Amino acid sequence: MKRSYIMWFIFAILSSIFAALTSILAKLGIENVNSNLATAIRTFVVLIMAWGIAFLTGGMSGISEISKKSWIFLILSGLATGASWICYYKALQIGEATKVVPVDKFSIVLTMLLAFVILHEQITVYKLIGILLITAGTFVMLI
């Protein structure tokens, strides 16, 4: 196996683990806290952490080389992330984590569909089967 294949997979697994921890820790911490304030606190922590990592790893050296197009899409991505987090925290505050999280993770299906349409990524029978299974699984978990 190629090293790059292993590395993306390791980071994806770690992302999944941290996302799971995020949901549980947020549900524990959001009790009696305004969901928008909770999102702001979380965002502040992420902001400090992300900038710290960028500085520590030398990632700041390329900031002047970022194209206008990349700036626009990164800003739009940030706005989408913010909207997602605000909605997620509100849903988590008023709903059960075991129901909120599967609906939130339905974004997998939406991302794949958008990747097919916008990014022109390859559609395969296996990916379509996966989409159907994730969709069915999401609805089963809501019962």
Percentage of residues in strands: under 5%
Secondary structure tally: strands: 0
Structural class: mainly alpha
Tertiary shape: globular
By oligomeric state, this entry counts as: single chain
* Percent helix: over 70%
Number of helices: 6
Helix-strand string = HHHHHH
**Contiguous uncertain segments of 5+ residues:** none
- How does the major sheet shape up? none
Q: How many angstroms separate the termini?
A: 40 Å
Provide mean pLDDT, rounded.
93
Radius of gyration: 18 Å
Task: Explain what the structure shows.
With 143 residues, the protein is mainly α. The protein contains 6 helices and no strands. It has helices spanning 3-29, 35-56, 68-94, 97-104, 107-117, 125-142. α4 runs antiparallel to α6 (125-142). The N and C termini lie far apart (40 Å). The mean pLDDT is 93.
In short:
With 143 residues, the protein is an all-alpha fold.
Features:
0% strand, 143 residues, globular, mainly alpha
How are the SSEs ordered, and which strands pair?
Elements: H1 3-29, H2 35-56, H3 68-94, H4 97-104, H5 107-117, H6 125-142
